[in-house]
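It is worth pausing here to work through a concrete case rather than discussing structure prediction in the abstract. The textbook approach is simple: state the sequence, then state the predicted structure, then interpret. We follow exactly that order.
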Amino acid sequence: MPVSEVAHYVSQGQITPILPIAQHYIGGFAVLVAVTGFTATIASFGAGLYAASRSLYAVSREGFAPKYFARLHPKFATPWRAEVAALVFSLLALVLLCWWQGGIGGAYAYVGEVFVFFVLVLYIFANVANTFYHLRVRRDEFNIWLNGIIPVAGIGIDAYILYKSFFVSELGLPFKTGSSIVWFSLAWAAIGVIWAVRWRMKRPLATLTLTDAS
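Step two, the predicted structure:
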């Protein structure tokens, strides 16, 4: 499929033009592509709910969030209060974004772009942690290739992708569908930094464990 044809689909409002491309090659069987994507999305969202609720439970147990979320279900031993909170937040965020962006497609694209920012930042810090952990804690296991060259290359690649696919592309778009994504992501990241610094001044964070008991 030529790039110009893909651009044509996108210009017509196809946020992700996978389905019309699949129809071009396999006709009616293209519905299998949609079904596969749907089931993969459900699995991804299920994992996201699992991670979010248990992270909320863990930070609540350590005193970083209301203790209300630090309780397990009496029968199933799962952090059900945190799970309900994650579900309610997700639903409200979905409704708000659909209203602002004018539909589910726009809301999906908006969240996807925000995800690009935070997952790349996470990858960068994972590489940073790799190097510093082996230099400061496991110096005897330090490998110049696995803990030096590869992480540094990963940081450079991730930073370049973040710059080109996020800052450059989004800041050139209208505020509603583009530049607001950048400002929201930066603001949310700044809140996270301030939160961490604030707690670091109160407690020795290196001594904490955020593993969950469920």
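Step three, interpretation. The helical segments are 3-11, 18-26, 31-61, 80-101, 104-136, 145-171, 175-200. The chain is about 75% helix and 0% strand.
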